[in-house]
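The authors assume throughout that readers already know how a fold can be written as discrete tokens. For illustration, here is how one protein appears when written out as sequence plus structure tokens.
>
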Amino acid sequence: MVQDILFFASKIFWLFARPNTFALLLLAIGLALLWRGRRWGHWPALLGFCWYAAVLLTPLAAWLTLPLEDRFPRPAPPERVDGIVILGGAVETKLTEGRGLPSLNGAAERMTEAVALARRYPEARIVFSGGTGSPIPGQLTEAEVARRLWASLGLEGERVIFEDRSRNTWENATETHALLDPREGETWLLVTSASHMPRSVGCFRQAGWRITAWPVNYSTLPGGAGWFDPPLSMRLGQAEWAVREFVGLVAYHLLGRTDALFPAPRSREPA
């Protein structure tokens, strides 16, 4: 019950708190107040305008994203891997259901990397973790889309496992841990977007899992190269995603879902 309340509360909160939407609301409120002769309306209008101006004129999106993507460097490939966990978030369930074909979004590397790793480690279990983030029951799950996609690419069989109950990153960790019950000494890789890795690793550690970060889907280049190349729409999305991750890190730590406020690599994960 508590988990359900928190899930619905997070959806409602982010509906209005996402930076691009919030800035637009501030801008609209400020302009409406100015139109009605309220001089103090220039403050919310200015705040809303400043968000869009900062993303347009500065590398704000990259500045916000780089600390997240650089937190867990990609390690050398292990000699042996017992299992690979791929987090949901890369598939589009509504498009898949509407068009009848598995549809991917900008995080597609999570899905393609799973196929590459499955070939590199033919004995490893491949685990997809993702139910539905929709509050409406009965929706197509991400796990079902992943099943269709991977089957079309030849990735299927007993070693491919699908966890379809989780609705967020914390449930990815707890539901998958309960399903697989990883043992002492096993080597597991965690595949998700680099910017999502700090919160993901923090959750898996808190769930009692020893796991190795295997980041994919980078959106920034080091050293400032190409920071202004993406169009404004993409930079707005990138900045908003980074803010979401930082908000999620704070919220998850306060809820006891991560082992640290900003999880970092360490030499040995707890079993």
Summary: The chain is about 50% helix and 10% strand. The CA atoms of residues 113 and 216 lie 8 Å apart.
